[in-house]
Amino acid sequence: MKINPRFVITVIFFLALYSCINFYIGWHLTVWFDSAGIVFNPWAFWLPFAILVYGYILGRVPLPTAIKPLGRLLKVIGSYYIFIMEAGLLLFLLGDLVGLFVRLADGNIDDYALYSGIVILAAIVVLLAVGSRNAWSPIVRQYDIEIDKPTQSGQTNWTVAVASDIHLGNVVGRRHLGRLIERMNAMQPDLILLPGDIIDDSIEPFLRNKMSELLGQLKAKRGVFAILGNHEYYGGHAEQYIGEMSKIGIRVLRDETVDIAGELYVAGRKDKTAESADPSRRLSASELLRSLDLSKPVILMDHQPTMFAQAAEAGADVLLSGHTHRGQFAPNHLFTRRIFELDWGYMRKSAMHVIVSSGFGTWGPAIRIGSRSEIIKINIKLSATL
Question: HSE on the CB side for 24, CA within 13 Å?
């Protein structure tokens, strides 16, 4: 296997940066201990702290069956630390800036270290509580849209339920999935569409916890369809996942289209990851939709919200995406907003309606700050029957 030097350098750089950030956080904690008069052994602090810091990485290392639960625990704890690290970094930087002004004003820096540490730790606890509530309490967002195309059957109103980025795994499990089943089925939708990242990398917890049994309870009058996201590729179990979905009656579209009783089309693209991870690559939107009768409505799913203009030109009437999580926790949304033409919500691109969901589940910790776990309900109104 040929090793890419650029990849190795990139990994080393990010590991070094990650380590420096966490040393900064750890150093602040030791300063706070000293200001609070807490006596501790350096080894007794830094060794557990290092395990916490690298827990998510260590938890992904293949382990013997007997100790696999330990790896899963490390991965879950380590995922929550990712949020604590980001929040801690921002809060400690802010605290240091304020501390600089305190020092310049000849204030008592020892007292400042003690009380600022208490404030920062309390703020992280509050953020964890609020973020957990945002992640585990899904809301339904509704979009009412019109497509200026006639229907062949007389059904001019369609209800489409959408949930992207469920990320079923060791953190998001059966309980949260149950909330999805209950709320989606209550809509009595014509279609249920799942635009990618249904599982979170590994398929193992999806199988172990028999989540397909629950997912198979989704009911829609005209069918349930899904596409692949980047995480189905990352886990390396895409084919097995597609097989499991097929068993429960959910068709995973990979550069495929479905004619819904001659009334409208549902199209699903492979994820952008397929451009490098799939030997057959992926079709462009124009290649995928070329053979369709574009006098009929076309709903296109593409996991990552890119190339809106191309999809509109190809004839899609509705484009559904996810992937961004709207940054999942602020201020990450400032970056996703710059990266994507639309990182969350609704926009009109020419005649095409674009809807990007912040997702139903979470990557890493079940924490959302500045975003909510959501299900999308789309009411589509078509023109009168021909």
Answer: 17
Tell me the C-alpha distance between 281 and 288, whole Å: 13
Where does 255-302 show beta strands of DSSP type E?
256-260, 264-268, 298-301
Listed in sequence order, the residues at least 6 apart from 134 whose beta carbon sits closer than 8 Å to its beta carbon are 367, 368, 369, 371, 372, 373
Place of tokens 């810091």: 53
CA distance 83 to 351: 39
The pTM is what?
Answer: 0.93
Q: Identify residue 236 by its one-letter amino acid code.
A: G
One domain for residues 118 and 187:
no
Provide the domain count of the chain. 2
Dig out the tokens for 129 from the structure.
Answer: 């509580």
Write the pLDDT tens digit of every residue in 211-236: 999 999 999 999 999 999 999 999 88
Q: How many CB atoms lie within 10 A of CB 110?
A: 11
Q: Are residues 129 and 146 in the same domain?
A: no
Same domain, 142 and 126: no
- Calculate the CA dihedral of residues 287, 289, 292, 293 and round it to 10 degrees: -120
* DSSP track, 46-105: HHHHHHHHTHHHHTTS---GGGHHHHHHHHHHHHHHHHHHHHHHHHHHHHHHHHHHHHHT
Going by their DSSP bridges, the two strands 264-268 and 256-260 should be labelled as antiparallel
- Same domain, yes or no: 105 and 171: no
Q: For 86-135, what is each residue's pLDDT tens digit?
A: 999 999 999 999 988 877 777 667 688 889 999 999 999 999 999 999 99
In this predicted structure, what is the pLDDT of residue 172? 96
Tokens 């574009």 map to which residue? 294
Residue type, 207: L
Q: Identify the weakest region by mean pLDDT among 8-22, 350-364, 372-386.
A: 372-386
Strands 251-252 and 256-260: unpaired
**Looking at residue 367, what DSSP letter applies?**
-
